[in-house]
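chain below, 557 aa
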Amino acid sequence: MSDDRTLTLSDKQRLLLALEEMKAKLHAAEQARREPIAVVGMGCRFPGGADSPAAFWRLLRDGVDAVRTVPADRWDADAWYHPDPDAPGKAYVRAGGFLDDVRGFDAGFFGIAPREAHSLDPQQRLLLEVAWEALEDAGIAPERLAGSQTGVFVGIMNHDYSRHLMDVDRPERMDAYVGSGVDASFPAGRLSYVLGVHGPSMVVATACSSALVSAHLACQSLRSGEADLALAGGVSLMLSPDTNVVLSRMHAVSPDGRCKTFSAAADGYGRGEGCGVVVLKRLSDARRDGDRVLAVIRGSAVNHDGPSGGVTVPNAAAQQAVLRRALASARVKPAEVGYVEAHGTGTPLGDPIELRALAAVMGEGRPADAPLAVGSVKTNVGHTEAAAGAAGLIKAVLALEHEEIPPHLHLGERNPHVEWDSLPLTIPTERTPWPRNGRRRVAGVSSFGLSGTNAHVVLEEAPVPEDSGPADAPRPPFVLPLSAKSEEALAALVGRMEQHFSEHPEQDAADVCFTAATGRSHFAHRLALVGSDAEELRARLAEHGAGGDPVGLYRGH
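prediction:
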C-alpha cells in the first residue's frame, strides 16, 4: 500500500471523527436546550391563611373561598364604594382576596435598618420573606448561596406604596431610601443583594402573566448555563383603593369581588393579593445533589396577542399558538395533558376564548372518555395579578404531588356562550383523584397578561424516588436542631415544626432532621430535640411549646 493511499484513508478517518464530534456537540446542545427543570422548593403567602405550600394545599383541597371585605387597615371600603360603575372617584367593589398582615416585617433579620424599612414597599418585604422560606423548603441554606450563580426573576405590577410615599402634598415622607424602596427595578435586585448572588436578576412586568413569564425566563437561564439555581415568582399587594376605582371605570371587576370562572354568573374578575416563589434547578443537578423534586418543568413558551380587538382584548389564535409551542418545547402530546390550571379570570369575554383555545389544542388525539380537567385557583383567592402565575404554578405542583385535583369554585350554571357538549373538557367541582398510573401525569399552567403577553408552562410529575433501603432497618435516634434570631421567632418555629409533624405523620424523621441540620441557616437562639421517630419529635415539640421541659431537649446560644 502506497504512502499516498495511507494518507487518504487517514484523512477520511479524521473527517469521520470530526463529524462524530460535531454530532455529539449538537446532541449535547440540544439536550441542554431541552433540559428538564426541577421544582425543588416553594414558598407562598396567599389569602385565607395560606402562608405555606401545606396551608395553601389545605385551602385548595377544602374548597375554601378566601375572599372577604376590604380590611379596615387598608382603606375604608364603604367610603370608597358606590354601586354605580360610572360614579366618579368611586369603586363598585368592596371585597377581595386579602392577606391577614402586610405590616409586620422583621427588618433586622435581613439586615435592614428600621428607617430604611419604613420606605421599603411591603411587596419587597413580602418577597424577601417568601423567597427565604422557599429556599428553606428546598433544603438550601440561604447564607450558603453567597457568590453563586443564582438567578432571581420576579413579576410585579402594582405600585400603591410609591404613591403613598411620593405624595406631593406630603413631601416629608420622602427620604434617601424611597428610591430603592419603591422603584420598580429593585425587588429582584434587593433579593439578589440580600442573598449575595451573582446570577441574572430582573423584574418582569407583563401585567397578569408576570410571574409565569418569570418562570419561563428562569428556565431559559438555567438551560443556557447563566444560572445554576433560580428563584422565580411574583408578588402583588393591594394597598390603595385607586386601582379599584380605575378598574371600576373599565367595568373589569366583579361587584362581589369573586372570580366566577366559566360560570354563567361571570361578571368580571375579583382582585386578590399574595406572593409565590419557586426554587428551580436543572433536573440533572437536582439528582446529583440528592434534592427532593416536587415536579418537573418540561417546557414553556411566551408570546403576545399582537393585533386583536384591542390592546387588552385576548386573541384566541395567539393562545393556541403559545399552547402548541409550550407542548413542542416539552415534547408532550396534547392528549397526555391531564389537567390545565387556566388563566380563568371569570370574564364573559375571556373565559369562552380560553376554553375554545384549550379544546382546539388539547383535544387533538384525546380519547372521548378522558376529557381535559380545567380549573382556576382564582376562584379561591381572587386574581392575584402579577403573582397569579405563581399561584397557578404552585397549585399545579401540589396537585401532582398530592395526586388530586382540587375543586373549582363558584361554577353553578355554566357559561352559556361555551359549547360545552362539543368540547373535550371537564370542570372538577369536587376533589378529584389523580393518582400515578404508570403513565406520566402532565399538567399545564396558563397565564395571560392584560398587556397581551401570554405564557404557558408544561409540568410533569416528579420522578419516583429511589428506594432507600429496608424500612425496618435499625436506626439511631435523630437530632432536630432549630434556631432563630430571637426567642419569639424560635418559639414560633417550634410551633410550625410541631404542626408540620402533626399534618405529615408519614414524614421520615431522618429527612427532616438532615434538612434542618444542613439545609438551614443557624442563628444565635437555638435548641435541639432528640427523638426516635417523627411522632416522638412531635410530642416533645408540643410539650415544649406548652411550657414543658421534655426529655431530650437541649438549649443553647
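The mean pLDDT is 89. The first strand starts at residue 37 and ends at 45.
thats it, cya
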